[in-house]
Each structure stands twice: as C-alpha cells, then as structure tokens.
Amino acid sequence: MTNEQPYAIGTPGSKWGATEKAQWLALQTIKRSYQEEVVSKIDALRADFDVEQYGELCYDENSYPLYLVKSRNFDASKATILVTGGVHGYETSGVQGAIRFIETKAQQYSEQFNIVVAPCISPWGYETINRWNANAIDPNRSFYANSPAQESALLMQCIKSLGVEVFAHFDLHETTDTDNSEFRPALAARDAVEQKNWNIPDGFYGVGDTLRPERDFQKAIIQSVEQVTHIAPSDGDGKLIGVTLEQFGVINYACKELGLCAGLTDAVYCTTTEVYPDSPKVDDENCIVAQVAAITGGLDYIIRQ
C-alpha cells in the first residue's frame, strides 16, 4: 500500500530544505521527561555499576547528558557484550528494557562477560516521542564515518574509546503503528521518495545481519522471547515489514550498508529486537520483559557454545 495523502509539510516531489525542517521541528513538543524516566534510574545503578557520561546533546535550550553503564572490573579475558537502547527515542521498551536488564540480570552475566549498556542514545527523541533527532535525521541510518547525527557519532566515538572488541551486540527496538501513520509518510515527504506502507507485524520479531546472520543465535532469542510474549507471524507473502522471512520470527538486514546501530561493531553475534507495543495482547511491562528475554536468550546461547 502506497502513502496517498500528502504530508502536512513540504511540496510533493520536492525534498525538504531548511524551511521545511524548521516547520517540522516547530511542531515537536516535550511529552515526557528523560531526567525522571531514564536518568533517575541510571543514577540508581551507580552503587553496583560504573556509570560514565560519554557526551551531551544540545538542542536549542535543552541539553541531554548521554550515559554508558558498565559492569565493574573489566577483564580482558572475558568477551564484551554491548546493549543499546533508544536509538529511536520513541521506542520506549528499548530504553526501559535496557535499564531493566541492568537492574535484574547484568550482575549475573558479568561473571562470564564484560557488560556495556547505552540505555538511551536519543534522549531528545525519547522526550518528544520521535524517530528522528531535532535535525530531522534518523540516528539509526547514521552509523558511518562523519555521521550527521550527534547521537550516532558520539556513541561510535565512545565504543571506540573502550579499546575492546565487542563480541555480541543487542540493539533494542520497537515497530509501532506510528511507523505507518507518521514516520514513513514523513520520510517520504522529507526525501521526496515513494514509501510503501507495510503490514505492522503483530508480535515480536528479530533482525539479523545479512553478513553474519548466526541463525542458531537468532533462533535461541526467539525461543526465549516466546516464553513471555507472542512472536509475529509472517504476512501472506512470507515477509515481515516487506522483507522475506529467514526463519520463524527473524529477517535479515544489511546493517552496515544501511548505517544501522546493529552494524556499529564487527561483533560475531548481533541482533536488532523488534517489539510491537500496540498489540492488544501486550502491555508496557510485557514489552520490557520481552526485551530482557531477548538479551538473556542470546547470552545463554553464547554461554552454551
């Protein structure tokens, strides 16, 4: 299905310039508090984890400190695990799931791994419930050299500065109804390209990397998640979000080529989780628990190897 109604901003067939981006930004409003919902929870972790500020975003009068949470006593003999949340700020369970993993599971797994978590990469997007940053740039298409997105550039610098090889990377996301109602139409208008809406999958699914799909790893994640929530079935064409199914509940993307956060490192194992918070079968808590189950399912698989 193709978007037929013109977006409220811009002229059909013409890419946005500075004027259109300013119009878009003027419509964005603060809807929730990064300080209250995220930073306060990160501060509460300081007794048991190392919490470091790795940068700060400045948009107009608002500034947003960016935090990394690490298990203590890094050991070079252990594999390093990276968890990222909130690359798309509007995807709430990605942020809260990353925090919940630290609160409830990270200590347990730090016996086998060095744990590194960036809970909320796009705090402006979190507060305004947006996919893009304030410059109308998608951070999750901006993980490449000379990135135009501060969010992506600062995280890349941070991970590089750790001086370790990341062995596994879990990037926590959601697919929401607003992907079709707002964000894809906005993308079509911004770039003056046709965007076809797809059926939003009802349930959890995972996205592997075409270059390193690690089929059994992805399967273990699905098996773990389906203990707490339902897995999205494919559509009538055997696809999820327009991509052919690789296995039950899993599709693959070219992560590095597309500038995705999941392509940030050369990790042996990487996955992008996709929770569907708009399903009548789930609530906010279930979505958070599903994110944690994805991480633990993947880590348990690695330990078994």
From TrEMBL:
| InterPro entries per record | DUF2817 (IPR021259), Peptidase_M14 (IPR000834)
Q: Which domain of life is it from?
A: Bacteria
A single Pfam family it belongs to is DUF2817
User: Which SUPFAM superfamilies does the UniProt entry name for this protein?
Assistant: Zn-dependent exopeptidases
Q: Specify the Peptidase M14 domain's residue ranges.
A: 30-305
- Give the family, as the similarity comment puts it: Belongs to the peptidase M14 family.
- Its name, as the record gives it, is M14 family metallocarboxypeptidase
